[in-house]
């Protein structure tokens, strides 16, 4: 597959996201972040217990998404939240604390994830439901295999 040429603006954006993701979130806040992860600066990441967030390699968290790692209402002060490898979280999605998002998952924009998500799933809605299983994402987080609808 041929590498596409990026504009100057795209290259600067990649550098800024990298500085925020690795310089600030990983090294200053102490989050467990894998390789080649992209977190939008407008995304709300756990602030009270940043070490409770674990993000796998090649994952992306889009604008204004929220990933939580604590919940005072359930009686748990800190709960580890795991996001798998090659996972994309859409804009304004909310990941509640203590959940595991599998590998190769696509969380739709605006989804409120209240339960664990298995590998290779497309999830959307409020509360989030599994819409497709067996999906595959390419390096640009696009769905290349749409899988099938889950058995009801």
SSE inventory with pairings:
Elements: H1 8-28, E1 32-33, E2 38-39, E3 44-45, E4 53-55, E5 60-61, E6 66-67, E7 81-83, E8 88-89, E9 94-95, E10 100-101, E11 106-107, E12 112-113, E13 121-124, E14 129-133, E15 136-137, E16 143-145
Parallel strand pairs: 1-4, 2-5, 3-6, 4-7, 5-8, 6-9, 7-10, 8-11, 9-12, 11-13
Antiparallel strand pairs: 13-14, 15-16
- Give the total of beta strands: 16
Radius of gyration: 15 Å
Biggest sheet details: 6 strands, mixed
Structural class: alpha/beta
Quaternary organization: single chain
Uncertain segments are none
Shape estimate: globular
Strand content: 25-35%
Helical content band? 10-25%
User: N-to-C SSE series?
Assistant: HEEEEEEEEEEEEEEEE
Strand adjacency order, main sheet: 2-5-8-11-13-14
